[in-house]
Write a structure and sequence with these properties.
The chain is of the alpha+beta class and 135 residues long. It has one domain (2-130). The chain has five helices and five strands, in the order αβββαβαααβ. The chain has helices at 2-11, 54-57, 82-85, 94-102, 110-117, and strands at 27-33, 36-44, 47-52, 75-77, 127-130. The chain has a five-stranded antiparallel beta sheet with strand order 4-3-2-1-5. The protein is globular.
């Protein structure tokens, strides 16, 4: 199944894989839909972790995200899920290269890339905010 998913990603042009940073790196991002906190994305001990907020779980009119169907599960993965990874543009784009150089961002620093580019995307209405209190 993993091979099929990888081939599908390549076919769709989604070749970038974003592994979690080393275990000593900690970061937290808050995912919002309007003013509603949907959940948190963390980097903890070398893994990405996503969990829904209690506030979101109480909102029965809202559906869970496709990659995270179980509201009560804490999802963990070494690779950043496509829902979040799609927010990071290719670092091979000239305008992105310029931003990285100007702002002195390492193109291999996934947390820095997500902080800089991940706030909004045209593919969904969610907003991802970096939590300065944690990272």
């Amino acid at each position: 199944m993993k091979t099929i998913m990888q081939r599908a990603k390549e076919w769709l042009g989604m070749r970038q894989e974003f592994k979690a940073p080393s275990p000593e790196v900690k970061a937290e991002f808050l995912l919002f839909h309007g003013s509603l906190l949907v959940g948190t994305l963390n980097v903890i001990e070398g893994h990405w972790q996503f969990k829904y907020s209690e506030e979101f779980k109480l909102r029965t009119e809202l559906r869970p995200l496709v990659e995270f169907p179980d509201l009560d599960k804490i999802y963990k993965n070494e690779e950043l899920w496509q829902f979040f990874a799609s927010r990071i543009p290719s670092t091979e784009q000239p305008d992105v290269e310029e931003v990285l150089e100007t702002e002195n961002i390492d193109e291999t620093d996934v947390v820095a890339l997500l902080k800089r580019f991940g706030t909004r995307t045209i593919t969904n209405p969610f907003e991802l905010k970096y939590n300065n209190a944690v990272g």
